[in-house]
Amino acid sequence: MPDDLHALSPLDALRAILGPAGLLTAPEDLAPYLSDWRGLYTGEAMALLRPASTEEVSACVALCAKHGIAIIPQGGNTSMVGGATPESRPGQVILSLARMNRVREVDALDMTMTVEAGLVLTRAQEVAAEHGCLFPLSLGAEGSAMIGGLLSTNAGGNTTVRYGNARELMLGLEVVLPDGGIIHGLRRLRKDNTGYALRHLFVGAEGTLGIITAAVLRLFPAPRETVTALCAVPSEDAALSLFRRFRAADEGAVRAFEYMSGTGMGMVFATIEGTALPLSNPVNHYVLVDLTASREGAGLRTLAETVLEAALIEGEIEDAILAESEAQRASLWRLREEHPEAQKRTGANVKNDVSVPVSHVPEMIRRCSEALREMIPGSRPVPFGHLGDGNIHMNLVQPEGMEPSAFLARSHDIMDCVNAIVRDLGGSFSAEHGVGRLKTDMMEEWRGGAELAAMRAIKAALDPRGIMNPGKVLPGG
Length: 477
Prior knowledge:
This protein is an alpha+beta fold.
């Protein structure tokens, strides 16, 4: 830190580091950053920091560490669990990575792309495509979510069944530590067996151990053939059987396998303009299947038709449609991606981002739906999500006519109800959304003992003053 900053107040020193465009304090400028996307949390901050380089991040963090100022790192602010929202307490700043949005390098031979943390996911996908490659991470918030936040939460999404979570798509990281030190780990290596793999500490840590400023991402060959099908299935078990059938036919072709309930689809049709069911009749269960191949002439359509014909004979599907164009494919995917917005428009809802072993998904959906209806008569379970990797969003929408505030007052009862069943089935209370502020109270019961003690020890070692994203992930932290 330059000596001439020591005589300044913390805010003036931060302003000197960042310049006029890099530090905002006006209430109207701060407001969009103080609340989460779902409207669950609103906090306070004395300033918004907008660094334009890793060096500026480092200088800001070092200054904040010196003065004991808490830092809330924020990317696209799309967290579903309040992971990027400040608490209501003085002495903290929000650090936005939005200005750090450059693509530093693309190597189509190495199949890597080095990008800054503020790059929006859709832009990362576009840049990869411009180089004849694929960056496969895909999720509903991809038009707003940023690479740093996606890695900090180990985001999942629709293609995990084929490509894995964000962790599996990262080779190296550049990270600013809580004292301002910089880990220069932007290595493009598939093999690097040189001690602790520190990069993996920061993936999924939700900004509590440091600030990811850049990353080396893995790329893949661009798809040259794609087939998408929407299927009506008679039950949750039939959906799982259909997944097994596609996987047995060609496991490498299955890029996504998504489950939607009839209730959720009905909400989409009722609230989202321009959506309609492309099948003959509405049913209680649907599956969206996405197949891709990186070579031409892979015969995916023939494969899909063969699998669906056999499934129809066995009673595993009742109806199906194969997309005939890119526009139709996009319309089928839209039915899946509009589920969160449709639920929001239908009424107050409680979200449960849970996972169980894939083989237990049907049982989990049935048991949770029955338990929730019994707990709150008239409530509407809306299970949907990534059947292929065991991650179902077991959401619940309020009964018609019930006061939203009264329904939301039962949020933790609803989550406890779902989590009890998920735990019985060997699952997790957070599959891809993280812990954030919403679920810290669950950590003691689910990850207590030696596991939580190890997490606390890591936090204390890297962030002894507790300035990095306080109140997130660890209970009492």
